[in-house]
């Protein structure tokens, strides 16, 4: 092979490597942004569930709908809170 062909191949490989690196960087950035958005939403829903939980405890008149709404926003932790405090809520 001539020197010109090697230079063209090297330049082409450098461009491909650069493009792959750029795609990897974009994937990483989108992953970080997505993770931050999910974390923010989970914290926001947990605060909403905590507020609803406190209202339920203070009210002493808890309906099934209230429990479902609280567990919907707060997840398993709030399901366990309701189950562990069932005597107090009754």
Structure description:
The chain is mostly helical and 90 residues long. The protein is 90% helix and 0% strand. The protein has four helices and no strands. Helix 1 runs antiparallel to helix 2 and helix 2 packs antiparallel against helix 3. The model has no long low-confidence stretch (mean pLDDT 86).
The total strand number stands at 0
Strand percentage: under 5%
| Mean pLDDT over the full residue set | 86
The helix/strand class is mainly alpha
- Report the sheet with the most strands, covering strand number, pairing sense and barrel closure: none
Instruction: Give the helices and strands as they follow along the chain.
Output: HHHH
Described by the principal axes of the CA atoms, the overall outline is: rod-shaped
Please tally the helical runs, counting DSSP H or I stretches of 4 or more residues: 4
* Uncertain stretches: none
How far the N terminus sits from the C terminus, by CA atoms, comes to 86 Å
């Amino acid at each position: 092979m001539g020197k010109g062909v090697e230079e063209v191949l090297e330049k082409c490989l450098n461009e491909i490597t650069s493009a792959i690196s750029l795609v990897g960087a974009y994937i990483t950035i989108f992953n970080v942004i997505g993770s931050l958005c999910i974390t923010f939403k989970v914290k926001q829903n947990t605060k909403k569930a905590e507020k609803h939980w406190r209202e339920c405890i203070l009210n002493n008149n808890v309906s099934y709908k209230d429990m479902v709404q609280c567990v919907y926003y707060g997840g398993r932790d709030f399901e366990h809170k309701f189950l562990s405090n069932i005597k107090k809520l009754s």
